Amino acid sequence: MRSVGEPSDAATRRRGLARTANIEVIPLRGVAAQLADIPPTTTITVTCSPKFGIGRTVEFTELAARAGYHVVPHVAARQVADRAELRSIVDRLAGAGVRDVYVIGGDAATPTGEFASAGDLLSALATMDHPFPEVGIAGYPEGHPKIADAELLEALRLKQKHATYLVSQLCFDSAVLLGWLRETRRQGITLPLRVGVAAPIDTRKLVELALRIGVGSSLRYLSKQHGLLGSVLRGGAYRPEQLLDDIASTPDLDELGIDKVHLYSFNQIAATVEWQRRVSGTRAA
Q1: Structure confidence by residue, pLDDT tens digits, 123-149
Q2: What pLDDT is attached to residue 215?
Q3: Could you give the angle at which helices 118-126 and 83-95 cross, rounded to 10 degrees?
Q4: Selected residue with higher pLDDT from 246 and 200
Q5: Orientation angle between helical segments 53-66 and 83-95, nearest 10 degrees
Q6: Gyration radius of the chain over CA positions
Q7: 5: confidence class by pLDDT, cuts 50, 70, 90
Q8: Per-residue b/e over 23-41, b at no fewer than 16 CB within 10 Å?
């Protein structure tokens, strides 16, 4: 099981987690102009939503790859019609030099075709020649609104044989996150974890973004923890330092197999990169 490494103390761990974090981008029109804000060594992940479709995800992945970035596209199973379309997507991503994909079920209410879940698509992908040594799947520290916990665990067990890492959905409570991870390990899930962390958020800008991409996709988490919905109403801002500190200082971090951090930027990219540089102790090139 991979881990962050052998840092000497929590502060060093925190800097390492921030420095190596991936940054998630929503492929809205115009966001390509913000790519220059992201250091070339940073991995970019690209979301896949029912509103924009998987075609937009693949197009933006190709654009970011041409710009020299290591890119991880999200592939939403419920948006892929059949094996022929999956083959086409794999070929385009291969042509762009993609070596890492993140397979999710997706939020579409009805499957486009034969893939109703991430497990269905992963099984099909496993029968194909593909260039992806890294394949990620999702984990849910606070559960899923439509899937029972026992079903989620069984799905993880089935998907684990086709995956190489796990990405946790947003969770703002470190006790909940770490408790879920310890129990997941006890249940035999050994995949390295990329911890999903919300980047610093100007909540008024987040509301503006929600109006563009759909409220459910970006504001669903605001009622979860730490009074974030109230923060939105007051025009405040969320900062992720406490969650990162809690993760970095947990005594059994190495045993838990936390690989790195996955930053949900909500397209506040410049602020995300500036926070990453500050917390990691690095400077702009």
Answers
A1: 999 999 999 999 999 999 888 877 888
A2: 40
A3: 70
A4: 246
A5: 20
A6: 18
A7: very low
A8: bbbbbbeebeebbeebeee
CB 244 within 8 A of CB 11: no
What is the rounded CA–CA span in Å between residue 22 and residue 140?
18
Domain boundaries, the chain: 10-200+239-280
Contacts of residue 151, defined as CB under 8 A and 6 or more positions apart, other chains included, come to none
Integer CA distances (angstroms), 216 to 205, 207, 265, in order = 15, 11, 16
Q: How crowded is residue 58: how many other Cβ atoms within 10 Å of its Cβ?
A: 21
Place of tokens 């925190």: 14
Give the Cα separation of 153 and 160 in Å (integer). 10
Which residue type sits at 232? V
Alpha-carbon gap, residue 63 to 59, rounded angstroms: 6
Architecture per CATH, domain 10-200+239-280, reads as Alpha-Beta Barrel (3.20)
Helices (H) and strands (E) in the chain, counts: 12, 10
Strand-pair partners of 260: 194
> Residues 142, 224: contact at Cβ < 8 Å?
yes
Look up the pTM and report it: 0.87
11-48 per-position pLDDT tens digit: 899 999 999 999 999 999 889 999 999 999 999 999 99
Q: Which residue has the tokens 């408790």?
A: 179
Phi then psi dihedrals of residue 6, to 5 deg: -120, 55
Q: Is residue 134 helix, strand or coil?
A: strand
Give the contacts of 24 (CB within 8 A, at least 6 positions apart): 44, 45, 46, 47, 262, 263, 264, 265
Longest alpha-carbon distance in the chain: 52
The sign of the dihedral angle between the CA atoms of 144, 146, 149, 152 is negative
Tokens 């923060």 correspond to 231
